[in-house]
Write a structure and sequence with these properties.
By secondary structure, this protein is an alpha+beta fold. The protein has one helix spanning 13-28; strands at 4-6, 49-61, 66-78, 83-95. It contains 1 helix and 4 strands; from the N terminus they run E-H-E-E-E. The chain has a 4-stranded mixed β-sheet, with no helix packed on it.
Length: 102
């Protein structure tokens, strides 16, 4: 499904989706097929599960330095809401520059 960005950062959702598609297809070893879905309201009719991706952040600004804690959450769910897999990654950055690197 499309990436939900709840951070203060502008992102290109296609960058996140491309990375996920690459990693999942590499790890799948042809046990399953990936189908790109462009709309959260129109899941693919033949898909057994959908991958939800959400980015959230907390920001602290003390004047000269801004500190950001960013959380990347992934959930693979069936259409009836059963969670098949979930993963979470976190980054923290303190800088006077408004960019996240990983």
């Amino acid at each position: 499904l499309p990436v939900v960005n709840r951070t203060r950062f502008r992102i290109d959702p296609a960058l996140v989706q491309n990375e996920l598609i690459h990693d999942l297809s590499t790890q799948s070893k042809k046990r399953f097929a990936l189908v790109a879905v462009r709309s959260a309201t129109q899941p693919h009719a033949t898909a057994n599960a959908v991958l939800k991706t959400e980015l959230r952040s907390l920001t602290k600004d003390n004047g000269a330095v801004t500190s950001d804690f960013v959380q990347y959450a992934f959930t693979l769910e069936t259409h009836d809401g059963e969670v098949l897999w979930s993963g979470m990654y976190e980054t923290k950055r303190a800088s006077s520059v408004d960019v996240i690197y990983q």
